[in-house]
Amino acid sequence: MKPTAAISVGVVVCLLRAGAASAITDDQYRAIGGLGELNGIALHCRYLDQTRRMKRALVEVLPRRRALGQGFDDATNESFLRFIAEKSDCPDKAAFDQRVGEALRVLERAFGRSINEQ
Length: 118
Hints:
There is one protein chain. The chain is mostly helical. It has one domain. The chain has five helices and no strands. The longest helix has 20 residues, at about 25-45. The model has no long low-confidence stretch (mean pLDDT about 80).
């Protein structure tokens, strides 16, 4: 699932307000928003192992800027609330794990850093 325009715009606006935009590319915005979207689903479906996996990756990869974490949190909240409002069904766990894996590879490429998933 690709991040929606609303999530991407929300992440960009949050980062612009915080003054962090000069160091962050569009691909990096999308990678953070995409993970936030998946995190909202994982929280709703109680796929807590995937939530931990995503948060560990963010800590490893993202520069230490509050605005970046806030962008992830905002995308997570939007996704969680939309999932409830749309009365969506939880995705198959194995398929969801693969989606998270792909989103993490996107994050790695966007920030040029590898994630250590031991």
